[in-house]
């Protein structure tokens, strides 16, 4: 399915939080979508443990829950990272090498589109045109569109994150 990132303690918490949500719903198959939306709203994604709880509650096969999640791109199978990286693959960005930029992010972060790094620092995905085509190829980093993001700029952005991280840990350690 997806990269396993949950710990046992976390799995228990996920199951409990998912069950809490059921209180507001009847055991009707028609409640699947609103339940999925609520669970994702609470957890930020739909982990396997939540899927199993939902299937149990609605008394439907787990594969049905999984199929709905993968059909709609509003649902996430992986936890959100602390930083979100969204590579624009709209027409203008595509023409200016959006896929090369996406490949660069994939290689540097060592994850695929739709995934989160194991340390949950970054999640990576693609988006359609974000309306800044003159700056193509665009990557939206933590909600802010960055222009002319070619592979060398990917390195620069990651370096900036590293520096920020170093500064933070220095401040924390006095
Ligand atoms: S196509 Fe990327 S911003 Fe428009």
Structural summary, described in words:
The protein has 174 residues and is α+β, with helices and mostly antiparallel strands. The protein folds into 2 domains: 8-71, Arc Repressor Mutant, subunit A; 83-172, Glutaredoxin. Helices cover 50% and strands 10% of the residues. It is built from 7 helices and 4 strands, in the order H-H-H-H-E-H-H-E-E-E-H. A 4-stranded mixed sheet has the order 2-1-3-4, covered by helices on one side. Strand 3 (139-141) and strand 4 (144-146) form a beta hairpin. Helix 1 packs across helix 2 and helix 3 (48-58) packs across helix 4 (62-71). The longest helix has 22 residues, at 151-172. Residues 1-5 have low confidence and may be disordered. Bound molecules: FE2/S2 (inorganic) cluster. Residues 88, 90-93, 129-133, 136, 138 line the site of FE2/S2 (inorganic) cluster (FES).
Share of β-strand residues: 5-15%
Biggest sheet, open or closed, and with what strands and sense? Answer: 4 strands, mixed
So what's the CATH class of the largest domain? Alpha Beta
Helical coverage, percent range: 40-55%
**How many DSSP H or I helices?**
7
Classified in CATH, the superfamily of the largest domain is: Glutaredoxin
Show unreliable segments: 1-5
Count of the domains: 2
Q: What shape does the CA trace take? A: globular
User: Which small molecules are bound?
Assistant: FE2/S2 (inorganic) cluster
Largest beta sheet: strand ordering: 2-1-3-4
- CATH architecture classification of the largest domain: 3-Layer(aba) Sandwich
Series of secondary-structure elements, N-terminal to C-terminal: HHHHEHHEEEH
The tally of beta strands, per DSSP, is: 4
Q: The CATH topology of the largest domain, please?
A: Glutaredoxin
Content-based structural category:
alpha+beta
